[in-house]
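Entry for alpha-D-galactopyranose complex. Fields follow.
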Amino acid sequence: MTAEKMHQLFQLTFGADKKPEIYFAPGRVNLIGEHTDYNGGHVFPCALTIGTYGAITTRDDRVIRFYSANFPGIVETSLDDLTPDKEAGWTNYPKGVMWAFEKRGYNIPCGMDILIYGDIPNGSGLSSSASLEVLTGLMLKDTFGFEDLTMQDLALIGQYSENNFNGMNCGIMDQFASAMGKQDNAIFLDTATLNYTYAPVKLSDARIVITNSKVKHSLVSSAYNDRRRECEEALKMLQTVVDIQTLGDLNEEQFEKYKDAITDPICQKRAKHAVYENQRTIRAVEALNAGNLEEFGRLINASHVSLRDDYETSCEETDLLASLAWEIPGVLGSRITGGGFGGCTVSIVKNDAIDTFTEKIGPAYEKATGHKAEFYIVDIGDGAHKLS
Ligand code: GLA
């Protein structure tokens, strides 16, 4: 998609005399550090070059008109009616961000016409909703001159709207990656403090390959919220024996020492994942920075095993994709990425093994599951920005 094309689509939809401004916010893939972001741990995501595009003009009334090139049909609402509505579908995300702006005291003075186009595959777990939230935040900031808001603020507002308007208790990772991404770098983010550094993703003769399982099991957000609650319960039990603020405050040895305080076995497994995954993430970034790709890949594989056995957010399909990948020489690491229960795996694959990767996994996966996996060899892009 180009800025010119967005312009044309906007004029076709809302009138030939309109002169919209055009913006883009990327999706993300998380290399390692899964389900650690609401446990005070570290994450290591990067922004993609696919994402969500937006075109916007203001209106002189309080009406908001949304149009998505992905789900055609104009959806109309008003600044005076920013409430979640099942019927409103995808527009609940931008509406939620507008609601969150108002809540923070940033009054939106007038209505808008907004056209959206996204090229993130639907339901793939590559953060199409977070990119739509960050995109909306950036459009509002720019259009209405809310200059004091930083990109980090836009990430936090996006997360706030997702938690409180759309009822998904997500952490900060996805919005942060979409807002703060940097070309060719992953973001090593400490979610307890929001301190972060960029780490160049130098894979020498390898690439990042995303494999889309094409399955999304239902009740994703309720299963996600369950995990979050189980971790909170585990933390409470641990706090009776050790002085910590989050699960991310513990290393493996400390966890083993105190784990019996977590009397519920399910909560204990969830907490184990959160603690070990955080330590794996720290080590993985060290390994990548040191150019030790074998170790980086080994930790990625260990992350999958932990998500499969202890956190139980993987599923048959993504387990199959990962284990097929592990058998291929030249695959440094492979694991489920994102919230889970379907979606994608992320693999680090040597260039000369990429053809074998797709040729072996595609047919074997389809034979076993009936689904046609999709493969994306991805580049790491910049965070949200204006295009025109
Ligand atoms: C989803 C959430 C994130 C994070 C991941 C799991 O993508 O939106 O905040 O918790 O799941 O790592």
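NOTE: Residues 30, 34-35, 37-38, 170-171, 173-174, 338-339 surround alpha-D-galactopyranose (CB under 6 Å).
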